[in-house]
Design goal:
90% of the residues lie in helices and 0% in strands. The protein is mainly alpha-helical and 202 residues long. Helix 3 runs antiparallel to helix 4. It has a domain of 92 residues: Single alpha-helices involved in coiled-coils or other helix-helix interfaces. The chain is built from four helices and no strands. The longest helix has 134 residues.
Length: 202
């Protein structure tokens, strides 16, 4: 009977302690699982942070590389614009220089043609003066014919003077035409002088 009482008591104690032990064991096991999960989460977070940091570094590197390329292109563009400005200045200076040379050449041509016209007119006027003196010794009939032939001479002389004066307004485009006009008027006066001379006896 005493032995049966001990066995019953032990069985009762075991029935009470068993659930507590199982709960404690379960609690201890749950604690271990939570720690492992926390460690795993931390590793995942750390890996994610590293990836984000790497992505940020790569993005910054790409941005810096792009900014460097843009800065280089802007520098090249500024240099190109500067070269264009310098070329434009040089071209303008060249044009100005060529224009100045052309203007100086035009002035020399004007002066030369005017001087030529004045000399030719002066030569023809001397011929006319000589013919007037000769006409004084000519017979009346010849003298009358000579005087009649001289009536248009002043008009022809003025035409030559106008042609000489026109060179002041002549341009590179009209210079040749002005020269032709002067030569034509000089020729007209030469023919008139020759015709007047023919009226006087030899």
């Amino acid at each position: 009977m005493f032995m049966l009482g001990k066995l019953a008591y032990a069985r009762a104690v075991a029935m009470r302690v068993g659930p507590v032990a199982l709960g404690l064991s379960a609690s201890l096991g749950l604690g271990c699982d939570s720690g492992a999960e926390q460690k795993t989460l931390q590793e995942i977070q750390r890996a994610a942070d590293q990836k984000v940091q790497k992505a940020e570094r790569e993005a910054r590197a790409r941005v810096e590389e792009s900014e460097a390329k843009i800065a280089k292109l802007e520098k090249e563009l500024r240099e190109a614009n500067q070269k264009l400005d310098e070329a434009a200045v040089q071209a303008q200076a060249s044009v100005d220089g060529q224009t100045r040379v052309a203007e100086e050449a035009l002035e020399r041509a004007r002066a030369a043609f005017k001087e030529h016209g004045r000399k030719e007119l002066a030569h023809l006027n001397r011929d006319l003066t000589e013919l007037n003196r000769e006409s004084l010794k000519a017979p009346d009939k010849a003298r009358a014919a000579f005087v009649k032939s001289m009536q248009q001479i002043p008009k022809k002389q003025r035409a030559i003077e106008d042609a000489i004066a026109a060179f002041d307004q002549a341009t590179l485009d009209t210079l040749a035409d002005a020269k032709k006009k002067l030569d034509r008027e000089l020729m007209v006066l030469r023919v008139a002088v020759k015709a007047a001379r023919a009226k006087l006896p030899r």
